[in-house]
Amino acid sequence: MKTILVVVGACYLDTVLDVPYYPDEDEKLRATKLIQRRGGNGPNTLEVLQQLIKQEETTEEPSLILFSVLPSKSSPAIPQISSSFGKHVDLSRCLYRADHVQPASSYIVRSMDSGSRTIVNYNALPEMTSIEFTAMADELGVKAGWYHFEGRIPEVTVECIRHLRRSNPHAKISVEVEKPGRAGLEELAAEADVVFFSRSWAQDKGYENAEECLREQEARASKAQLLFCTWGEDGAAAFDLTSREYYQNTAHELPEGCFLDSIGAGDTFTAGMLFALLHRQKWLLASKLNFSIELAGRKIAQEGLSNLDELTLPDFDMMSAHTMGKKTAE
Q: pTM of the prediction?
């Protein structure tokens, strides 16, 4: 029986501008490229997941559900958002704000000179409430076996998780701890079974590497079974708090000139790991980590999130832990 995964997070429309360099204040600069696409951490993760699970399923029934706040169903943005997903993603549970036409939007400026990006967000949509989440979760009942939360509005998300612990105690819960300076994220991590930490959040907390972050956060994530931390070119780390096994691997080195688009790389890692946890339970944790790192590397080497399912899954079905750097917690 397949597990229904519910992803809770914001859905954005992204406008990406490539510029030769960051302009000074009040300077006029011509962009060299413009891309418009659907974004948002949770939706990005689902876009990758749908590619991976289509190799596993023959039924038409969706196994992936997006629970997000969207503008009115009459908004011109809705067809663009809907078309970015396939048959495996159910959007019918989303919250459509009838009085709002504009979607949440991100304007991303990428400097070709520095390789960095600057993001400006706009979102006037009223946020999800715990009451709205509870109504959706109760309607789904125990059919939903996994909930993944983006880490927005931690105080509301904690209420949602605690409701699930009462109403659907067998469901697994994963959360993202990503945004530096956002209050309440450690309290949120303390409620989850699986936690994904970002490098930017970890560095903001004073951690110098992924291992330090995971070992320190173990004491705070009291209910967690698995902790992950991505660290850019240094790859990612995984800590199994049950077996006490720690794994770390560097990012796969890309040929010169192949670093094209890092937007959504972290979401791609999350998608790879959720896929492995749900659909490749027999894999060793080391193999799950390596798969997710390689998937994120392939995303960086291309523009956008399409065609990531070309990563050959049988190769990873044969993978063993000796290819990884295994450590045992002290």
A: 0.91
